[in-house]
Amino acid sequence: MWWDERLLGLFRTHLQPTLTYWSVFFSFGLCMAFLGPTLLDLRCQTHSSLQDITWVFFSQQFCLLLGSSLGGLFKRTVTQSLLILFLSSLVISVVFAIIPFCGHIGILALVMAIAGLAMGCIETVSNIQLVKTYQQDSAVFLQVLYFFLGVGALLSPLIADPFLSDTNCIQSNLTQNGSQDLEHIRNSLIPHHPGNLSGFELPLHGPAVTRISYAFWIIAVINLPVPIAVFLLLYKQGMVPGCAKQLGSLLSADELAMETQKKGEGSDHNEAEPHEEKGHGVPVICCQSKNFRGASFPFFAIHACAAVTLFMSDGIVGEYSGFVYSYAVEQPLSLAHKTAGYLPSLFWGFITLGRLISIPVSYKVTPRSMLLINLIGVEVTFLFLLLSQYSTPGLFVGTAFLGLFLSSVFPSMVAYTEDILNYKGCATTVLVTGAAMGEMILQILVGMVIQTQGSYSFLVCGVSLASLALTLYLALMVFDNIHSRAVEEPSCRTPPLGREADPYQR
């Protein structure tokens, strides 16, 4: 069986914190996917233009990038991490509750910026804590983490769909668009790239009639158990004011596990490294400047190659989901708006399915091998899409396979890179930030290329980005081998710590 007793024992030991991290990522997924389908109704609510409303996308994504970087500062102890997760998940519920009251585009952009900060902190802190908890066994649990992200990302658009306006939600004597035009606009709205929508004139003045508020309030209620779960974990640690520290807290369990591991390594090793991490309770020291002194070039190259690989792969996820609809309705396929509208949903559905499949697969296959298979699969799929550009079934099949191959790239890369660097946690912050930058920047760059070069460049950009990602990953594997030899050689020549070498011994 793929789930053995040792892994099950680890899961039981860390059951409550693991379930809490997974639930927080479900909250992250809810907040990540609702904005696109509801953007037209929010346009009516704020009486803003199509060009202006896309700035709400940008404010969320930019602050998600900022939050991903800041999240690395709050990982020194489990207590700090849980406090950040509690505040972030609570902020997401509050954001959903107050969005219906945002009547101005600036206020809405500010609220979504706050949500982006919370999402960034959740992404970084949850990844780091899972990696530090399970270390060499973290790959399986990271795959589950991102499966919960996919579930949340699929659920929020489904909740919003019954409340979306079928006709223009600003009542005016100006142009009244039918549902077909609104569906086309809804699928074409991309962050900072509203597409070729200048021919659609939507009224800006008049009473707004929309029911989207109910969707936001439903999602806020669904998300409410998440901050409650984090609060209960804080209570178990005795961090709630007026509550004494509980026996068997998460911190004590982690310290006990780490002490058991250290005993196996020998007492001399412990004495030589008095400042090493002790479970989650001691500050992470890998990001301090003194720890980079004397670091080899492969050490920095591993960080750079892994981050840029995720920059490309997450950028592909963002640009493909954003532009595949626009590509499908243009020449040469010229699909109907309703048919093309299924493509983004198909893409995200197979990403979630791929993450579910990756849970048992990651127990049998190493993250290094999974990454190689996935990135080769992404490259081959884009070449297939390029060769079958005149085939509608080929586009649907290629979209499904692309979602499958991209699904487990991020969690596998986190597990692989942290394994190379001995689970310090610092690499996760770099990887999360690189992925967030790719998702934001590549959408803008690819959108500019498509507008200037035409829809054909959509697949050419995909092939180019996939090739770069695969090349950088192959470079990462080379630097991994160099780094491993550099670490092993000194350990073979250095006498045991705590003992002085005998200068007369031959």
Computed Rg = 24 Å
Strand content: under 5%
CATH class of the largest domain: Mainly Alpha
Q: In the CATH hierarchy, what is the superfamily of the largest domain?
A: MFS general substrate transporter like domains
Biggest sheet, in brief?
A: none
The termini sit apart by 51 Å
Helical stretch tally: 20
Mean pLDDT: 79
Structural class: mainly alpha
Q: In the CATH classification, which architecture of the largest domain applies?
A: Up-down Bundle
Shape: globular
Q: Strand tally, please? A: 0
Question: What does the model show?
Answer:
The chain has 506 residues and is an all-alpha fold. It has two domains: 264 residues, MFS general substrate transporter like domains (Growth Hormone, Chain: A, Up-down Bundle); 222 residues, Growth Hormone, Chain: A (Up-down Bundle). The protein is 72% helix and 0% strand. The protein is built from 20 helices and no strands. Helix 3 packs across helix 4 and helix 6 runs antiparallel to helix 7. The chain starts with a helix and ends in a 13-residue tail after the last helix. The C terminus is likely disordered.
